[in-house]
């Protein structure tokens, strides 16, 4: 995903490496190049500004300290700043003190929520949790069936609408699903919700109603890393319309320019907790800012 960005940034370091002493102009040349590379990768402008200002300030101060290997220092500053932009240390999932822990998924249609429900379900089951998936996406005709399929693959149970479970009413399905989870000693209940193709007030309202009905310990916003510049507006709309406590970046295996992945934390202030890297349930991992930064800078 970051091939072009990575080539550009590492290319800009080459100009520094050849020099024994660095001037401010050298640093500025490198920063200009990095700035262009980030903008071309669709990283949000405020994030780019903040990043380059901070790298410049720290690099200029490193130059004045007559450090032994200034080029290496600047490269380290860029690396550290990239880790910072990506969110620093990854925090753990927030578990309820009294089970079940309720995790609600939100995001646009096609973002990868239903797939994520299966991935997260499998991941949590492998850590000895009893997991229930709740099919509150009643928007997409096939969503309930798809959740049942991923649930089966992940080896976790699925609560789907049936007479009495609230056919046609996603809020009622969510509420009865969490209640079923509580009564049957599930540790974690994951509530899949409906998205739309674009940001839509009805979808936001439904998500808010589900949120208020199930009072989640975590609301995870699933963001398709392939959607480029739209990622910023979409993230802000969900943050303000529903609110979320963590981000999951999906489709990081794609060949988009990667700006969404680099912007979402800076734009929303909410950490990225997980990364989805393919269609299979195993293509899923904790998000590590330092590993992502190394992938970009190596
Ligand atoms: P939802 O509408 O948000 O529930 O999205 P889905 O879970 O149905 O995913 C939409 C499509 O994206 C499906 O075809 C998934 O197989 C695919 N998908 C989901 N996550 C990933 C991922 O990390 N990488 C790739 N390549 N495809 C994914």
UniProtKB/TrEMBL annotation:
EC main group: hydrolase
Start and end residues of each SRP54-type proteins GTP-binding domain: 271-284
Keyword Hydrolase: yes
Keyword entries, A-Z: Cytoplasm, GTP-binding, Hydrolase, Nucleotide-binding, Ribonucleoprotein, RNA-binding, Signal recognition particle
GO cellular component: signal recognition particle
Binding locations of GTP: 107-114, 192-196, 250-253
Localization per record: Cytoplasm
EC number: 3.6.5.4
Catalytic activity, as annotated: GTP + H2O = GDP + phosphate + H(+)
UniProt record similarity statement: Belongs to the GTP-binding SRP family. SRP54 subfamily.
Function per UniProt: Involved in targeting and insertion of nascent membrane proteins into the cytoplasmic membrane. Binds to the hydrophobic signal sequence of the ribosome-nascent chain (RNC) as it emerges from the ribosomes. The SRP-RNC complex is then targeted to the cytoplasmic membrane where it interacts with the SRP receptor FtsY.
Protein's UniProt name: Signal recognition particle protein
Species annotation: Flaviflexus ciconiae
Native organism taxonomy: Bacteria, Bacillati, Actinomycetota, Actinomycetes, Actinomycetales
């Amino acid at each position: 995903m970051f091939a072009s960005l990575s080539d550009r940034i590492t290319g800009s370091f080459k100009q520094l490496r050849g020099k024994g002493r660095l001037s401010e102009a050298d640093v500025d040349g490198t920063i200009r190049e990095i700035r262009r590379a980030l903008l071309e990768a669709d990283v949000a402008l405020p994030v780019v500004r903040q990043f380059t200002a901070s790298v410049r300030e720290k690099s200029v101060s490193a130059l004045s300290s007559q450090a032994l290997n200034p080029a290496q220092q600047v490269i380290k500053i860029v690396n550290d700043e990239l880790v910072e932009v990506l969110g620093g240390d990854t925090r753990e999932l927030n578990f309820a003190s009294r089970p079940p822990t309720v995790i609600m998924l939100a995001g646009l249609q096609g973002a990868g929520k239903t797939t994520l429900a299966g991935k997260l379900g499998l991941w949590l089951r492998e850590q000895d949790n009893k997991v229930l998936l709740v099919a509150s996406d009643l928007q997409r005709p096939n969503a309930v069936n798809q959740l049942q399929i991923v649930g089966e693959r992940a080896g976790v149970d699925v609560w789907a609408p049936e007479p009495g479970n609230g056919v046609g009413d996603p809020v009622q399905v969510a509420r009865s699903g969490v209640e079923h989870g509580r009564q049957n000693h599930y540790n974690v209940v994951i509530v899949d919700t409906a998205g739309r193709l674009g940001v839509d007030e009805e979808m936001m309202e439904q998500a808010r109603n589900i949120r208020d009905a199930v009072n989640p310990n975590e609301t995870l916003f699933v963001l398709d890393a392939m959607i480029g510049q739209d990622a910023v507006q979409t993230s802000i709309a969900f943050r303000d319309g529903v609110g979320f406590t963590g981000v999951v970046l999906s489709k990081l295996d794609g060949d988009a320019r990667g700006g969404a992945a680099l912007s979402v934390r800076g734009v929303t202030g909410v950490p990225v907790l997980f990364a989805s890297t393919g269609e299979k349930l195993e293509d899923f991992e904790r998000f590590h800012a330092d590993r992502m930064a190394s992938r970009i800078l190596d």
